[in-house]
Amino acid sequence: MAASRLGSLCSLNLLKVSCFQQVWHSAPLYRTTLTHLPRQSQWRTPLRKFHQRSRRRDDIVEQKNGYPTYRDLLKPLGFTIMFSGACFAGSMVWQYEMTRLKAKKIISNWISNEGRDVFYPKSHSFRSHVNMWWNSLSDGQKYVVSIIGANVLVFLAWRLPSAQPTLMKYFCSNPNSAAPCWSMLLSAFSQYNFMHLFTNMYVLWSFSNVALNLFGKEQFLAFYLSSATVASLLSYCVKITRCQFTPSVGASGALMAVLGAVCLTYPNAQLSIAFIGDIIPHSFSASAVLKVIIAFDTVGVLAGWKFFDHAAHLGGMLFGLWYVTYGRKLIWEQRESVQKWWHHIRGDP
């Protein structure tokens, strides 16, 4: 009996190997996926299901198809902390440098009586109109326009077939990607279609003036970039929990942080839906909009809705609320020590 069982088991294994070889040579895409998997995941995972049923779920997921686990969140978490710290420290130094440069301009009479830089008109009419429009913007609005321009460039790059592999690697937020850390940031500059691009950039421009008055251009840029990584980090956590690794793109996580910060600071402000308010007059208080968005994204995360990345939306919103309530006092209001340290390095003007 033992010999017959051993013979049947050997024949069954040979049958599996022959079927695997047929699939290997007939399906190149399937082979490409398997070549990136660990050797243990290719051969031992089907057998372990029969011998180790009592193992924990996270251990099984770790061995299954080489998918990331909670341990793989350590690098994205460290990247989020280090990158956010570098953004705020760099913004503090940037604010010092801008103040120093403005003092030099005042001494050298490079600034007009209104406190703005002196510009000279361009020769051609188109360049003159562009120059006049650009000079009419505040310094903060110019940086917002630069963010919008970066999103437009990435959107156009998606239309180039030769650039799509690089964009899939670095501009799609996914814990299972080849560059999970940098994609947390760069995915905030990637929009998948024109309506997606237009909606996000319209919201960014609509709230830019209020956000710039609230933070200032240096603090706003650090806050915007940091919120993008924090939103992606929470998205990673939910994707690993559900073992669903669909790539995510878009600036909505960072925009939710801006929206949450503005609505919490001005809870009685009246908001309306873009373009619909001109047809059907309506308005909502900022506090009501804040509660509805948080409730909607929370339900989306718990129910597993896949149309939006609700985890990224909720992560950005919670980061915006935390920063306005506690983070600004803990981080930005302590910038004087960093600026004094930088002034000691730079020396007197």
Automatic annotation (TrEMBL):
GO terms for biological process: signal peptide processing. GO terms for cellular component: membrane. Its EC number is 3.4.21.105. GO terms for molecular function: serine-type endopeptidase activity. Pfam families: Rhomboid (PF01694). It is found in: Membrane. The keyword Cytoplasm does not apply. It catalyses: Cleaves type-1 transmembrane domains using a catalytic dyad composed of serine and histidine that are contributed by different transmembrane domains. Keywords: Hydrolase, Membrane, Transmembrane, Transmembrane helix. It is a multi-pass membrane protein. The keyword Transmembrane applies. InterPro entries: Peptidase_S54_rhomboid_dom, Rhomboid-like_sf, Rhomboid_protease_S54. Its main location: membrane. Belongs to the peptidase S54 family. This is rhomboid protease. It comes from Octopus sinensis.
